[in-house]
Amino acid sequence: MDQDLARVARRLMERLDALTAFTDDPPRLTRLFLSPAHRRAAAQYIAWAREAGLEARIDPVGNIRARYEGREAGAKALMIGSHIDTVRDAGRYDGALGALAALAVVETLAARGRRLDVAIEIVAFGDEEGVRFPRTMTGSRALAGVNEPSALEQKDAAGVRMRDALIAFGGAPDRLAAARADGVAAFVELHIEQGPVLEAEGRPLGVVNAINGATRLSAIVYGAAGHAGASPMNLRHDALAAAAEMILAIETRARAEIERDLVATVGRLDVEGGAVNVIPGKVRFSIDVRSPRDEWRRRAVAEMAAAMEAIAARRGVAVELTPTHEAAAYACDLKIIAGFEAAVASLGLEPRVLPSGAGHDTMIMGQRWPAGMLFVRCKGGVSHNPAESISGEDCAIALAALTRFVEDFRAP
Ligand code: GLV
Ligand code: MN
Ligand code: MN
Are 294 and 222 in the same domain? Predict the structure, then answer.
């Protein structure tokens, strides 16, 4: 391993540790889109970029962006990045690894005095996880020009509108269109695998060929609140008992397509009132359904909705389903896959191509530009968990492959 790259990789691991200080929920790592911790993490990222001689800035929608010119000013750009928001009680590598690796690549090129035929644009997206607001990937959608302005009006659980949170953060909701990127040749993202395949096969890197599509819905079950002691079991309209049956129906439907890698998750459940002696009258829960093929996912969602309606009718409650997020499955660009395979092979490793079960900004960027991803193995395949971990050696290998890809990249 090149000594400079090993040093850059060590610094990258240190920065990943340092970013854990930017949390809204210490000692846990929670950095939701447009939160104070996100603002402080962004300031730190900008400071590191400036040390590297880059004029980094926050764009109107809360992404951090910076440009490293190519040989000729104004050349088309290869965009590299990932996100710096996190789930609640997160690990430190999901997103932040790729956002900081983009900066590390530029630092390496600058240290080598290298300018390429393309410019490099680095981006740290703010909203990949979609934990704070119902709709997600606001940052990459704005860059790709596929954002719906109504997204700005959505509210978080505390009733704060995205528009107002964006203003407080230093963004400019009225100039959302100005976040749209132009002159981009392609987009690539380095990310932890978030699954166990690479570790099981003893490989540090994987090249992503496709990203599963996702549908998210918000479900509200309306029953009738009542006295826990005075209401006989046969005269109740218990919204939580109905929701429980619906959740199991969702799980059963997903398990029926196990061999097609269909997955469904209810990760959030709110019981209004929530008292020990009150029959729940209103329950809200989230549904997240993913699959490699859009038609499989759509059919599963429709059948889950029908099963929920049937349960509601039988129990004398009502259910209301609202879609909050929809991302089509994305087949990565073939030239980018080939480029990553070549970069991995140049390190003496056999390229392993695999799909991504998790969602990524790449699937949005890919709607407008050729896009692709490189995965690095993570310990036990664990992610969305503070135990998330990668080794320093793998980080250095990933950085070497990404840098090689960038150096060899030719704009189409
Ligand atoms: C993001 O991590 C997602 O796939 O939900
Ligand atoms: Mn991620
Ligand atoms: Mn994630």
Answer: yes
- Give the pLDDT confidence of 283-314 residue by residue, as tens digits: 999 999 999 999 999 999 999 999 999 999 99
Assess contact for 204 and 98: CB atoms under 8 A: no
Residue where one domain finishes, among candidates 295, 327, 359: 327
Q: Is the CB of 129 under 6 A from ligand 1?
A: yes
Indicate whether residue 263 lines ligand 1 (CB < 6 A): no
Residues 162 and 283 occupy one common structural domain: no
- Can you tell me whether residue 149 is helix, strand or coil? helix
Does the beta carbon of 358 sit less than 6 angstroms from any atom of ligand 1?
Answer: yes
Which residue among 360, 364, 378, 383 is best mutated to probe the pocket of ligand 1, counting the most ligand atoms within 8 A of its Cβ?
360
Q: How far, in Å, from the CA of 87 to the mean position of ligand 2?
A: 9
Q: Is 32 exposed, middle or buried (0-12, 13-18, 19+ CB in 10 A)?
A: buried
pLDDT of residue 2: 78
Domain range for 64 is: 3-211+329-408
Query: What is the predicted pLDDT for the residue at 1?
Result: 64
Per-residue pLDDT of 25-55, as tens digits, reads 999 999 999 999 999 999 999 999 999 999 9
Gyration radius of the chain over CA positions = 22
